[in-house]
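Chapter review. Work through the record for glucuronosyltransferase before attempting the end-of-chapter questions.
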Amino acid sequence: MLLQLGNPVVTGLSYADRAESYKRRTWSLGEKYIKEYNAWFLQQQTQFLLGRDNFNGFLNFMGHLSFQCDKLLGDRETISFLQRERYDMAILDAFNPCSFILAHKLGVRYVAFYPGTLNGPLSIALPSPVSYIPVFGSQLSDHMNLWGRAKNVFYSFLAPVGQEIVWSIFKDVAERHLESGPPADGLNDLHQGAELWAFNTDFSLEFPQPLMPYTVLVGGLLNKPANPLEQDLELWISSFGEAGFIVVTLGSMVASVSVDPLLVELVAGFSRIPQGVLWRYDTRQWPHHMDRPPNVRLVDWLPVNDLLGHKKARLCITHGGQNSLLQAVYHAVPVLGIPLFGDQFDNVVRAETKGLGLTIKPTHVTRELLSATIQTLIEDIRFKSSALSLSRIHKSHPVSPSLRLVQWVEHILHSGGGTHLRPASLAQPWYQRCILDLLLLLCMGLLGPVAVCWTLCRCKNSRNRPKKIQ
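Structure tokens for glucuronosyltransferase:
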């Protein structure tokens, strides 16, 4: 990205002669583990499609990441290679705790890139009033009724517990591979050690909320003007005339639908609409007994950005991944969300609240509901109007997401770190940030004299009460 953007904004930094020195190193656990992991994930994928996304599945996934982390940090050759490079800065995947442990082992400063919305990390002291900022997993919008706020408060108590459980999975890895031992405050210390936090979101899709100086929104890194499509694909699209076509992608991790009843309903629903359906699907996994409707085309890979930027793109059916939604916003294409796991449920709530589209849970998909919802999204002008409005908001930002990220990374490098962006609240315990210690002191100051007066009055009344004659 730095090389593509050319000359940096900060003087004194140059990438012009660094293309030759760019190195890529691959690391793998071997075919045996990869096969075992893929088999596990296929089973997990089936659970997602059956609507059984749960915390245990997430913890199992974290267990796999922890195992991979242990093997990576124990690979002396790879670690020695990374240490010899003497990096000035690392940009981390903040979803995976291993990234932070690796940065600590290398002794390198780091910028945390979180691939989701602002409600993900809990320990970076973002102002998050639960009255209007939904907690991760709550599936709420920023406009909550009484019961919605009650649910949000409940989730706000569960969230830090979940974070501690996740850290417990990685704590042993940190003990084995960090000379200084695991951080005293676990993930909190690792998160707060970042010089900067970059979030893959944008206020065209995100709920408005306060930010801190060390946070920057860079949602839309993959967005760009569409390139022309290949000729055979263009001919296929033109065969549907003004009806246009629909892009269907359930994410890179769900390449096929392993639940037959769901697949039957999806295919039957698509066969009822006049639009072409371009579906990212592993063709090797398509059931031999099932026919494909003439308007459905399966492809192993989709140039999603180029397809959504096509003038005849009418709708994007997506799992609710953040990148897919931001690409739909950029190209002003309405979406139908079918969320499967993780943050996707929260993401599609944002899309629906903003008027970008509608949502159907995988367990609720029927051919009638699917075809009717598709036609509503295409024919109701309100969805296209909202998409155009959100696209204008996203595109009218004076600095592109990629340049925004590069400028901030350069700023951190040039200024010697991000200490000047870190408020004192990061070092405060949660009860001090919420002024609970002061409130407790005030309560004691007010209730103390009341208690003393009540005790004195009670003693006086007991002395004045006439004694019974026995």
